Predict the structure.
Amino acid sequence: MVDAARQPLIEVKTFTEVEKVEGYVGNFVVTLREKAKYVRADRCNGCGACTKACPVEIPNYFEMNLAPRKAAYIPMSQAVPLIYNIDMDACIHCYKCVEACGALEAIDFSMEDKLVEQEIGAIVVATGFSHFDPTPMTEYGYGRFPNVITAMEMERLNNSAGPTNGALIRPSDGKSPKQIAIINCVGSRDKRYNPSCSNFCCMYAIKNALLLKQMHPDTEISIYYIDIRTPSKGYEEFYDRARESGIRFIQGRPSEITEDPDTHQLFISSEDITLGKVIEREYDMVMLNQAAIPQPDQNHMSSVLNIAQSPGGWFMEYHPKLRPIDSPTDGIFFAGACQGPKDIPASVAQGSAAASRASRILHSDSWQIEPTVAVVWPDRCVSAKGQACGICARACPYGAIDYTKGLAAEVITAKCHGCGACVGECPHDSITQLHYTDAQVLAQIRTLLAVEPEKKILAFRCQWCSYGGADLAGTSHFEYSANERGLRVMCSARMDADLIYDAYRLGAGAILYSGCHPQDCHYITGQVVGAKRAARLEKIFERMQMSPGRFRVEWISAAEGDKYARVINEMQASLDAIPEDALKAEIERLRPEMAKKLTKLNEIPGVAQASVQVDFIVDEMIGKEKVA
Amino acid sequence: MSEDPITKSHAADFPQDEPRIGVYVCHCGSNIAGVIPPEEVVDFAGKLPGVVRSIDTMYACADSGQRLIKEDIAKYGLNRVVVSACSVRMHEPTFRGCVAEAGLNPFLMEMANIREQCTWAHGHDRAGALEKAKDLTAAAVAKASFLTPLNMIKVPVTKRAMVIGGGVAGINAALDLAEQNIPVTLVEKEPTIGGVMAQLNKTFPTMDCSI
Ligand SMILES: Cc1cc2nc3c(=O)[nH]c(=O)nc-3n(C[C@H](O)[C@H](O)[C@H](O)COP(=O)(O)OP(=O)(O)OC[C@H]3O[C@@H](n4cnc5c(N)ncnc54)[C@H](O)[C@@H]3O)c2cc1C
Ligand code: SF4
Ligand code: SF4
Ligand code: SF4
């Protein structure tokens, strides 16, 4: 900690929050809110005179609220940097601190929050984790029984710098406990709260048991567990040591803790799997190993940083195996428990890894980004002909389009992230996206629907989420109908209505329109543009009396492989429910309606030319004689 | 940012060159070949207009697979490459790099995902998987026919890092960056850095003090 403060190249900004992140790899602009401390960093020398003078006491979060702090405070004596704070919510404005501070004049009640902007090349996100509050698990009595405490409370109680100077005492009567129980997986591996494993609780259960045993050899300690997980180097040996030192391990999840209201003694009933029966034991004190959970502001941070979250709420990495440190956004990396519970060695290792991933960029003079940006055909844009439009500029999540009536719209390449929202929205087909041009995407659609189109489920998927969901379905071997034919664009915003109409014109049995959940969208509001269009299409197809299930809209994250498989299978079932003749008749009935919507398709540059070649490919696929 | 002429004005144009496509169908050991016969996809793709070379390979991503592609680009004068193998999330960068080494623009490579999105998802429907693998390969060939060369866009880099969160992970990242001479802003929302570790008593596995 002090090393960081001492390192001249590190500017430590405490009591500071990230308000806004704009820009892109190599060129982020981050807006920070430096919250008012009411103590001037350039004058405070860390003497603590203000704290001594302050008459107000409130619970200290750092001590898990087991000890008080003043309104003029630092959370712990080794705070880095050593600059005091005035907690304005608690302060009664007696100004005793100002008096105590005296000639230093460090306390300044006129300070306000300050917004500062910084230009940043790469970002490491290391926002850590939070602790599950066991109060809702009423069966354990936390909050009602004074001698039931959490693991974090134990860390402070057992700590020589903590509120009791390291003397372990029972909260109910101040006596030292002789019989202590530790319960693992409180809120972890529990479908009601958090289905996943919190990674480090087994190990800190053993740690605390060993520490207690060392300091108070006459204490008896039992650990209740489901499984003990000690996969890292030296961890199993640590577990062996605990067993040899007489710590009792009971396999079973306690069903209930009861209390004697007079003595505050605790009774745990639990299954003991080894004995094969239900047991009840008495304890002086019980420690609950609460689940590690995402930070309360994790959702907010994920939208500020424009990065996705895995199902449990942790930040989601680019690829769990191959790029575990990278976020899906170029130039943003993860370190530590914010990406999933991790112990200290793993967090430190990931910190170094993130630094190294970031320094690849920061040591370069320039960085390359994908050229899959949008371009306008100026001669097609109606604005150049004096017509009011600007639909593209309104759709763009990044403000990357210059629109002035009378001039052709222009994409500012540096700002374009390549979502394709403008391409999908332009009613005059005046914009295209490089590498995802209409000619290219239509060529894919036409080949995928070459043979028996009425049997096919054409699946439009975004690069970041639903394509990943489809990958995960495969990786997990969740099988789904092989009639699915997938197609990738960058964002659901690119899924132009024309592409959908053309697929139905060609006779597609069913179409899936899929992308990210709104909060996961890789392009801020790209999904919103896609979702609005999808809703419009749903209405249009309903009016056309298309059979239900032939057009389906689903938001599927890269972590929802099961959902992808289920959706495709459900779509197959809906298709199967339509008699073959009825389906064919419906396709024929709707074909002219779809074609009517597409009268201008062949005017899009490249589309007509491509059609000629695609026809040859399609002919080959259906085994027609080539008419060259 | 440099505005590359190839990106701005011509890249959206229809390609002028006659496609000469090479198709590479990967076995991925038995991951693909255990469900469908790759040779059938090869034969099918070989007949598609524009395809001048179609062949299977045990592991397209391995050195030998990549060497084959690179040699073929010269030998057959390929101007487009289709790799029917795994997910773009896995190997698109690999094969873009591979064709680039052989002098082809990396954006003239297209992948068909016949593993994650085909053989792995349809292990019990071999016939269906084979039809799908053919269609996905054909779609990649069709798209490849109309690909145009694109150049990566070069952007400048601000030489400053930001680390958000001053726990043990963030502190360590900030120190590592600073030791490489990169200025760092370490942002912490609480009044002190240290995170959870600062609150802990002694820590496993070494049982030393945590601060
Ligand atoms: C009871 C208990 C005992 C443990 N014992 C051990 C042990 O003995 N050995 C071991 O290896 N591991 C132990 N661990 C695990 C250890 O705590 C974690 O491995 C470690 O704290 C993870 O570090 P981190 O930096 O990722 O996250 P954190 O320690 O959570 O730090 C994150 C930091 O980011 C800050 N932050 C959060 N959000 C923002 C934001 N939006 N903006 C700015 N700053 C933000 C936080 O205030 C915090 O300072 C224990 C955990 C618990 C709960
Ligand atoms: S002015 Fe506020 S912070 Fe200062 S001593 Fe009085 S109550 Fe405490
Ligand atoms: S939406 Fe299309 S026509 Fe309208 S201004 Fe934009 S590019 Fe021009
Ligand atoms: S809408 Fe998307 S593709 Fe179009 S200019 Fe904006 S960022 Fe680029």
User: Anything to note?
Assistant: Residues 153 and 560 of chain A are 36 Å apart (CA to CA). The radius of gyration of chain A is 31 Å. The longest helix of chain A spans residues 344-362. The longest strand of chain A covers residues 16-24.
